[in-house]
Amino acid sequence: METIVNAYAAPEAGARLKPFTYELGPIGSNDVDIEVLYSGLCHSDMSMINNDWGISSYPLVPGHEVVGKISKKGDEVTNLSVGEIVGLGWHSGYCESCNSCESGDHNLCSSAESTIVSHHGGFADKVRAKASSVVKIPDGMNLKTVGPLFCGGITVFNPLVQFDIQAKDKVAVVGIGGLGHIALKFLNAWGCDVTAFTSSESKKQEALEMGAKDTLNSNNVEEIQSAANRFDFIISTVNVKLDWNLFISTLKPKGRLHFVGATLEPLDIGVFPLIMGQRSVSGSPVGSPSTIAKMLEFAKLHKIEPIIEAFSMDQINEAMHHLQSGKARYRVVLCN
Predict the structure, then answer these.
(1) Which of 48, 150, 195, 302 is the most exposed place for a label (fewest CB within 10 A)?
(2) Which of 108, 246, 177 is nearest to 257 (CA)?
(3) What is the pLDDT of residues 31-67, one digit of tens each?
(4) Does 3.40.50.2300 match the CATH number of domain 4-150+306-335?
(5) 243-265: b (≥16 Cβ within 10 Å) or e
(6) Beta carbons within 10 angstroms of residue 103's beta carbon
């Protein structure tokens, strides 16, 4: 008997989500089916619904910050059991044979399957994925808030591991929203001296409460200039164009400006400040399953939770409007 999935899908670009039913078909030997308990709502879901990146196909079922219970597994799945509580993020499968996969960098696999690209995601009562992309959630974590860690959280945690950020480092976070607020919490627990760049006066006090020791207005040239040569590392979570040369001037020699926010406009960066200060500009996606597991253990140890607002799954369009309006503080989670 086929498994029926009750989901919410965008029938075309920019459309409101509507109830959508589909059959999963026979389960593959390396697959697991997940009964969705919670699903985070991410800006990437909106980008996919609107086809901002030109890779969407319809009907499109968003949702890639899934928390749920394994309800079925394939014959060759040995690392997961029916009934276990797990999470699923941006990737729903990997090739397992390329250099990236074989070296543990599954998130860099060029053949990775994406949970909401040509695949139905987690705004549903069930979702299917390859077992290799699914991560167990440690006992004792708040399941209602853990979902956003599987995209927003790992996106800002991954660079801390990749670039060997030290507790003594002075680190700045640009943009205190869905990604940035989690970055503040992680960096504070990491031991860093953290500064928050934000253009929102209302978020300044909140940023200090979440771990920042200082705040600077990201639209105030004089404030940014006052931080010249201050930072070892800057992580940008925004998707808008800023004066990146100005931000580079706040880096120490050998400092790094790192992008995790998917700004669509080209970077207008002068090369001499990079050369003379031996500074770097880089970017990264989400992390591998092993890095996600490390992040979850770190979050549990330091009692780090994203700040969320909860909606029921059938309130999906209201939740989308709330996020799009910029009013979300700071992540939205849909509950089944």
Answers:
(1) 302
(2) 246
(3) 999 999 999 999 999 999 999 999 999 999 999 999 9
(4) no
(5) ebeebbbbbbeebbbbbbbbeee
(6) 10
Region(s) of the chain under CATH 3.90.180.10: 4-150+306-335
State pTM to two decimals.
0.96
Residue 18, Cβ neighbours under 10 Å: how many? Answer: 13
pLDDT in tens, 288-324: 999 999 999 999 999 999 999 999 999 999 999 999 9
At 283, the pLDDT band (50, 70, 90 cuts) reads: very high
How far, in Å, CA of 109 to CA of 95, rounded? 7
Sign, CA torsion 51/55/60/64: negative
| CB-CB contact of 77 with 131 (8 Å) | yes
Sign of CA dihedral 215, 217, 222, 225: positive
3-state class (DSSP) for residue 60: strand
Does the structure show a pLDDT above 70 at 1? no
